[in-house]
């Protein structure tokens, strides 16, 4: 219309005819473009205001004159049209849930046109209006589509509504238009078939009463090729395809969509239907939901409930070391991290109910707030105005009760068992731990020899400052995140946060159809908005349909070891190897059992908090265990980190500072492990816990005649504070020992903790890594280091000073923790307490290089038979070759060779012709001779020093942790498969 009446240049005409603006060419973006076009056509730059040469040139081009504008009536008509269009548009936009497309993108004029057209066709086709105009409309609509003209108003109406409400979603609009055309064309074809397939010769009236001209053109040629039925089926398929296109439904989602539609029509919740993963492929196109579900249905997928293999987790009923089942050793499904059972129960309850899962399920009938409302609400909350607080002051999340909600509430914490690793240790923000004792075992513990031993009192580790659950800093970050999301038009919202001591994890939930990548791609903008470079994004938070954004607290808190050891998790078990790790991002206490790890690698850059962690670990052990239960070997090449513990009775050797001696100590540990294994094998147990339990129950009886008193083995914890120093001195030997220990020592109750500030591949070799399953990564200086420690990036983003990622054995995801902190004076008090009760009794052979186990070349493959020969000759005190022949069933030559070997080892004297040789070894000395032949250590009767503490084992039954002691008088006696090398209690 404007084109015909307006003398304006073409570009301007085109733009105006789109009805983008009624304010003239410079009032909107479109207007500006329109004004610039004639200038460009004549070689002028866009900016006509500047006096550049180009501008001067443009001055020659005549500007559109005032009278180039459309005539007044045209302008009046257009203005009226646009006013009506806008009015209608805003009414349609208010219908259902409000939408607010940007002003520049609106296409109200076109929408209004389609709406009028729809009304016109409806008036004629539906309400049979007559008259000249009506006849023309019928000729156009009915003549074109026949019966299908009845659908035209409906389709035009859809188009109009889309243009009013979602003009910016061009792809979706085009898709719907294409789908409608499919239906219209194929439907007209079907109408043509059903209407008796009229021919042109029957006249237009006949065509109108069938499928119109389009129906004739579509179905006519096809029926010429095929019969009517196949064509009808084919066209029906096309109609169906059109429906799929309109609703953006891939074939595989047809059942779920139908179910969703059915449930929607029946007024049921759509949560399950959406859980089947039917997301339209295009994020832009989630708006199609209005066709079948309503835009506001935002349900998150309900996780499939996993069944437990058994009715209960085995660990639930079974205290670590003291039950009646006869089974104490490693249990299936046991984890390093000690969990809170109540919470676990609550979690499974939450996941089963599915209510509020992920925090995003909006109950039917509840309208999802608009972006503006959400922003306003978050900001209000951030400012603390007018928004009701949940009891724990954490932001309320729609559809779920607040954290710290009472038992039985459907708290929105869901843990899919496989992903539990990350969330298991945390309990929802706990108030300050009650000042109850550490741990539950506070009665006097009888050590072997009737020595009473008391664990250090819990007030040696005072409570820390009460944790904050929310601070102004958190509110400011929520506001910044909301603003960033809105700024980048990401349809997502901050639904809550959980504050840990060092970082807070903010939870972001996406509207259906919004891609996760839209948030993760904003990581730099988020860093910018919250002014922190250490932003870590978890997508998703395991077990939750939400994205987690971890942002350091500007007001971080220290986690006191005392609080961790007083937490419910720590007091739940009296296992002596349980240590306080720290607090996780949700403010839950993390407690781990070193025996279950079973070996731990601690790494991080200098100053990141490794030594503090090791201190917390050792102090935890001192606070919770007696020297009978846990013995330690400490290697401290830096010489300063562990000196505070010098002299504690839990040590079996002075703290080792020389890397060379440390390498030797590791070899001793290997020997200790072998000895324990021998005992396990001899007595038929698989794990040291089983063996110890049997010993306490009197089921382990030494062979008759043996004077050995069998006692339980303590756990042996080997702590290396700087692995790199050891690896520099003897890389091969250290690696060999570590690998051997880590491969086997678990069952022997020997556990390794390796700390290093150089987590490079030459220190933490592939072999070591493969055998040390639990990892604790403090801040590393590079992503490469993080990969070496954790096999994944992340540690390089930590913020130091105890901030760590904990990856316990079997976990697939790391737990972010703030390590527990224990001060030097606290350590001093604890150490003085334990030292005041018992003096350390060191074994001297620990750091002495063991003779290499080497079988002499001349023995070769004959070791077994030589050992038998030696035993025979020494016990009978008869050095006869023919006796060897007879008893060992060997030939003369072999017996002669054995006799020569015995002579060379000083067992028998030289040959005296046909006489038997002199036997030089007395039966009492047989054992060391056999050991020497085997290349073993000779048994060392004096290896375990007896001074200065002399404990007498006589009151085993009354003790909580009974430990039997070796009767030192016969320490040198050979006793198959065992020596006193295991005697770590070393009197
Ligand atoms: N858990 C923690 N809580 C609070 N502060 C901590 C914590 N851990 C470490 N820090 C702070 O970080 C400092 C350095 O810690 P630490 O000595 O443990 O680091 P490191 O990794 O052992 O360094 P290096 O390898 O040089 O010995 C401590 O002095 C303390 O101030």
TrEMBL record:
Q: Where is the composition biased (Basic and acidic residues)?
A: 332-349, 370-380
| SUPFAM superfamilies found in the cross-reference section | P-loop containing nucleoside triphosphate hydrolases (SSF52540), Winged helix' DNA-binding domain (SSF46785)
Which CDD domains does the entry link to? TrwB_TraG_TraD_VirD4
List the membrane topology term(s). Answer: Multi-pass membrane protein
As one GO molecular function, the record gives: DNA binding
Q: What residue spans carry the region label Disordered?
A: 1-72, 293-409, 964-987
- FtsK domain span: 587-787
Where along the chain is ATP bound? Answer: 604-611
Primary residence: membrane
Gene Ontology cellular component annotations, sorted alphabetically: plasma membrane
Q: Name one GO biological process term.
A: chromosome segregation
The record's section on Pfam families has: FtsK_4TM (PF13491), FtsK_alpha (PF17854), FtsK_gamma (PF09397), FtsK_SpoIIIE (PF01580)
Protein keywords: ATP-binding, Cell cycle, Cell division, Cell membrane, Chromosome partition, DNA-binding, Membrane, Nucleotide-binding, Transmembrane, Transmembrane helix
Q: Identify its protein family.
A: Belongs to the FtsK/SpoIIIE/SftA family.
Q: What task does this protein carry out? A: Essential cell division protein that coordinates cell division and chromosome segregation. The N-terminus is involved in assembly of the cell-division machinery. The C-terminus functions as a DNA motor that moves dsDNA in an ATP-dependent manner towards the dif recombination site, which is located within the replication terminus region. Required for activation of the Xer recombinase, allowing activation of chromosome unlinking by recombination.
**What protein name is recorded for this chain?**
DNA translocase FtsK
């Amino acid at each position: 219309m404007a084109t015909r009446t307006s003398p304006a240049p073409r570009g301007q005409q085109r733009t105006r005819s789109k009805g983008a603006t009624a304010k003239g060419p410079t009032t909107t973006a479109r207007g500006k473009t329109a004004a610039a076009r004639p200038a460009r056509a004549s070689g002028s730059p866009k900016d006509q205001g500047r006096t550049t040469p180009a501008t001067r040139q443009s001055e020659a081009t005549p500007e559109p004159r005032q009278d180039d504008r459309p005539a007044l009536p045209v302008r009046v008509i257009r203005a009226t049209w646009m006013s009506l269009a806008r009015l209608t548009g805003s009414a349609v936009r208010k219908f259902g849930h409000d939408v607010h497309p940007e002003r520049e993108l609106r296409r109200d004029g076109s929408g209004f046109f389609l709406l009028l057209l729809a009304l016109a066709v409806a008036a004629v086709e539906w309400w049979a209006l007559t008259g000249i105009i009506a006849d023309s409309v019928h000729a156009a609509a009915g003549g074109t589509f026949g019966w299908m003209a009845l659908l035209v108003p409906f389709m035009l109406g859809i188009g109009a509504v889309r243009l009013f409400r979602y003009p910016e979603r061009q792809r979706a609009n085009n898709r719907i238009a294409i789908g409608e055309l499919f239906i219209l064309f194929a439907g007209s074809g079907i109408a043509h078939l059903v209407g008796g397939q009229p021919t042109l010769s029957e006249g237009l009236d006949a065509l109108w009463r069938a499928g119109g001209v389009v129906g004739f053109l579509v179905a006519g040629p096809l029926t010429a090729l095929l019969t009517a039925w196949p064509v009808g089926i084919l066209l029906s398929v096309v109609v169906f395809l059109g429906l799929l296109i309109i609703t953006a439904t891939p074939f595989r989602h047809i059942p779920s969509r139908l179910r969703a539609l059915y449930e929607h029509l029946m007024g049921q919740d759509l949560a399950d239907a959406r859980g089947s993963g039917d997301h339209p492929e295009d994020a832009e196109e989630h708006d199609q939901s209005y066709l079948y579900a309503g835009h506001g249905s935002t349900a998150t997928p309900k996780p499939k409930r996993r069944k437990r293999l058994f009715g209960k987790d085995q660990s639930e009923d079974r205290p670590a070391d003291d039950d009646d089942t006869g089974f104490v050793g490693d249990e299936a499904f046991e984890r390093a991290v000690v969990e809170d059972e109540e919470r676990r129960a609550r979690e499974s309850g939450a996941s089963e109910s599915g209510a509020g899962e992920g925090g995003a399920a909006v109950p039917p009938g509840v309208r999802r707030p608009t972006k503006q409302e959400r922003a306003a609400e978050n900001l209000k909350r951030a400012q603390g105005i007018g928004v009701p607080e949940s009891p724990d002051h954490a932001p309320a999340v729609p559809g779920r009760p607040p954290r710290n909600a009472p038992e039985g509430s459907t708290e929105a914490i869901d843990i899919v068992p496989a992903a539990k690793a990350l969330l298991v240790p945390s309990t929802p923000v706990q108030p300050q731990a009650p000042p109850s004792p550490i741990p539950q075992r506070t009665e006097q513990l009888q050590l072997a020899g009737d020595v009473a031993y008391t664990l250090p009192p819990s007030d040696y580790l005072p409570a820390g400052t009460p944790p904050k659950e929310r601070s102004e800093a958190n509110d400011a970050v929520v506001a910044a995140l909301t603003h960033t999301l809105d700024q980048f038009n990401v349809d997502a919202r901050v639904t809550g946060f959980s504050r840990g001591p060092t970082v807070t994890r903010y939870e972001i939930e996406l509207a259906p159809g919004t891609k996760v990548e839209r948030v993760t791609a904003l990581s730099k903008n988020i860093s910018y908005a919250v002014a922190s470079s250490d932003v870590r994004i978890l997508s998703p938070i395991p077990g939750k349909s939400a994205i987690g954004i971890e942002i350091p607290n500007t007001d971080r808190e220290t986690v006191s070891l005392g609080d961790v050891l007083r937490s419910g998790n720590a007091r739940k078990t009296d296992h002596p190897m349980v240590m306080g790790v720290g607090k996780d991002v949700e403010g839950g206490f993390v407690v781990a059992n070193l025996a279950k790890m079973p070996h731990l690698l601690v790494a991080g850059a200098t100053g990141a908090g490794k030594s503090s962690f090791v201190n917390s670990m050792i102090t935890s052990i001192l606070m919770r265990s007696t020297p009978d239960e846990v013995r330690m070997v400490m290697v401290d090449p830096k010489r300063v980190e562990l000196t505070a513990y010098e002299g504690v009775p839990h040590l079996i050797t002075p703290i080792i500072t020389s890397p060379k001696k440390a390498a030797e100590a590791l070899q001793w540990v290997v020997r200790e492990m072998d000895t324990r294994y021998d005992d396990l094998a001899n007595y038929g147990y698989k794990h040291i816990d089983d063996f110890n339990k049997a010993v306490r129950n009197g089921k382990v009886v030494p062979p008759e005649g043996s004077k050995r008193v069998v006692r339980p083995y303590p756990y042996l914890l080997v702590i290396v504070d700087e692995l790199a120093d050891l690896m520099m001195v003897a890389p091969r030997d250290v690696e060999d020992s570590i690998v051997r220990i880590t491969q086997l020592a678990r069952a022997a109750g020997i556990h390794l903790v390796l700390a290093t500030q150089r987590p490079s591949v030459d220190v933490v070799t592939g072999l070591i890594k493969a055998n040390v399953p639990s990892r604790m990564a403090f801040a590393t200086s590079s992503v490469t280091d993080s990969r070496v420690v954790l096999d994944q990036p992340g540690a390089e983003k930590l913020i130091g000073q105890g901030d760590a990622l904990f990856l316990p054995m079997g976990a697939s995801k790391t737990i972010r923790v703030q390590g527990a902190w224990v001060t030097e004076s606290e350590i001093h008090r604890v150490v003085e307490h334990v030292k005041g009760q018992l003096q350390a009794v060191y074994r001297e052979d620990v750091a002495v290089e063991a003779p290499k186990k080497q079988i002499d070349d001349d023995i070769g493959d004959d070791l077994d038979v030589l050992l038998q020969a030696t035993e025979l000759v020494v016990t009978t005190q008869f050095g006869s070759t023919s006796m060897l022949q007879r008893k060992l069933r060997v030939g003369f030559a072999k017996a002669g060779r054995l006799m020569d070997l015995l002579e060379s080892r000083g067992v028998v004297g030289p040959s005296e012709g046909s006489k038997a040789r002199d036997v030089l070894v007395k039966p009492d000395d047989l054992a060391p001779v056999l050991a020497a032949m085997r290349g073993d250590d000779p048994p060392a009767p004096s290896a375990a020093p007896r001074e200065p503490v002399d404990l007498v084992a006589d009151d085993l039954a009354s003790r909580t942790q009974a430990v039997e002691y070796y009767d030192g008088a016969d320490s040198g006696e050979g006793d198959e498969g065992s020596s006193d090398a295991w005697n770590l209690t070393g009197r």
